[in-house]
Every structure is written in C-alpha cells, then in structure tokens.
Amino acid sequence: MSRRGNGRNNAVAERFSQLLTRERVMRKIYATRDHARSNTFAYIEMFYNIRRKHGEANNSPPMAYEKLEEFK
C-alpha cells in the first residue's frame, strides 16, 4: 500500500469513478440531489452493467460475461 489518496490503491474504483464522471455527471445538470442519485443509479444498473462493453470482459457487458463464465 502506498500513501492515502493514491489511485493505484484502488484502481478499479478509481477507473469506474472516472467513467461515471465523464459519461454521466459532466453531461447533465441536475435540479436536485435526488435526481442526480436516481440518474446515477440508472446509469449503473441499466447501462454500465447491462449494455456498456468492457475490454476486460471480451468486449461484452459484465452481466453477459458472467453468464458466459457460468457455463465454462
């Protein structure tokens, strides 16, 4: 482990946070905190996990990749 705040300590979370910010948060203006929260939830559960292709998962969405891995 290195010093606090170093992105290499938690690279996966840092990468996801960067993607969320770039693909969702910076593209919208939210009227309320609840709107921002529900929109972020929708991004994660309805796009990121189901439709967004991931390079580490053979360019398939995480849920589809998990189903493929179950049958191996």
**What is the number of domains?**
1
Low-confidence parts:
none
Note the beta-strand portion. under 5%
Shape: flat
Mean pLDDT across the residues is 78
Computed over alpha carbons, the radius of gyration is 15 Å
The secondary-structure class comes to mainly alpha
Terminal CA distance: 34 Å
Helix content: 40-55%
Can you write the helix and strand succession as a string? HHH
How many strands, what sense, and barrel or not for the largest sheet? none
Number of helices: 3
Number of strands: 0
Structure description:
The protein is mainly α and 72 residues long. It has one domain. 53% of the residues lie in helices and 0% in strands. The longest helix has 16 residues. The protein is flat. The termini are far apart. The model has no long low-confidence stretch (mean pLDDT 78).
List the helices and strands and how they pair.
Blueprint: H1 11-23, H2 33-48, H3 62-70
Labels describing this entry:
72 residues, 3 helices, flat
Brief account:
By secondary structure, the protein is an all-alpha fold. The chain has helices spanning 11-23, 33-48, 62-70.
